[in-house]
Amino acid sequence: MKSKIFIFLIFFIVFVSSCAKFKSEEAYLYIPELYHNSAQTAYDNGNIISALNMAAKNCKNLDYESCQLLGKVYLEGKYVEQSDSTALKYFTKGCVNKYPESCLYMGKMYNEGRAVTMNDKKRDEYYQMASTMFLQNCNDNKSSDCIELGQMYIKGILYDPYEEGINYLKKSCDLNNGKGCAMLGDYYFYEEDNKSLAFSYYKSSCDNHNPDGCLKLIDMYNTYKNTELNNKAEIISKAEKMCQSGASNLCVYLGNMYKRYTRFSRIDKEKSFENMLVSCDFNNPYGCKLLGDMYSLGYGVQENDGSALRYYDKACQLGFISACTLK
């Protein structure tokens, strides 16, 4: 009898372990929290409420990237009441703990006299601290810091050759950082008017799971006839998985794309509605406003004024001001 119980327990443990393994393998596609590996990622994807809640919690636990995000949000005053002093508090917390981007923002605040007295010496001191830490981390192949260092050159914060900044962005892309590849795509598209190189970098960005890169890759393909993309179905599949996993800005783009005939898709009202619904579920203000429009017009869904007003109200609460007049 004991041997039977023992065999049953072994079988049960193996079964539970295999289920857990299966769940973890599928998690990237279906569990938003795992895709949102940071508050900054959630914020970049347009999921504002999730990002701010996560950042407030994580900053208390000494996650200085989250403190940095809170500093930027209070400095801009877009989704919270603007407060230079609160922003400075969060930036100081990050900078004294050697988070270089926070030091960079402290330099900017001293340069602009926001919550502090304008002081060129202090400004340059914090800029130097930031650039030194960015360079050290970039040399250690931390691709996100290569991006930040590159931007300091490109924006003229560091007074060395502009090309040096591009080289650091290229290093970040070579390290498979999709954001760096997307920024290079922007550089070649807007600054150099080299659409071939821009397309190539946007493709690298999308291959490295960057939603912004995928969006711009699809947009270039739909806009320019001389742009060739042989794996259209693969790109759309990748974009839709990122949308389902929380990249709500990409959901909005896909929703709009299915509203019009493109090289990627024919008009598909139901798919347009589905993507907008996902974007709003992830608290994307613009997606909620467009979802309200769809209910108001009966586009891709049965017309329903009550649902339209509900989504306009949600868009308004999320900071989309023009939706407030539609409630």
Structure description:
- The protein has 327 residues and is an all-alpha fold.
- The protein is built from 18 helices and no strands.
- The chain has helices at residues 2-30, 32-35, 39-44, 48-60, 64-76, 84-96, 100-112, 120-139, 143-154, 162-174, 178-191, 195-207, 211-223, 232-244, 248-257, 269-281, 285-297, 305-317.
- Helix 5 (64-76) runs antiparallel to helix 6 (84-96), helix 11 runs antiparallel to helix 12 (195-207) and helix 12 (195-207) packs across helix 13 (211-223).
- The longest helix has 29 residues, at 2-30.
- Mean pLDDT is 86; it is low at 1-36.
- This is Sel1 repeat family protein.
- It comes from Candidatus Mucispirillum faecigallinarum.
What is the C-alpha radius of gyration, as a whole number of Å?
Answer: 23 Å
Give the termini separation. 69 Å
The number of helical elements comes to 18
Number of strands: 0
Shape verdict: globular
Multimeric state: single chain
Organism: Candidatus Mucispirillum faecigallinarum
Family: Belongs to the hcp beta-lactamase family.
Keywords: Repeat
Protein name: Sel1 repeat family protein
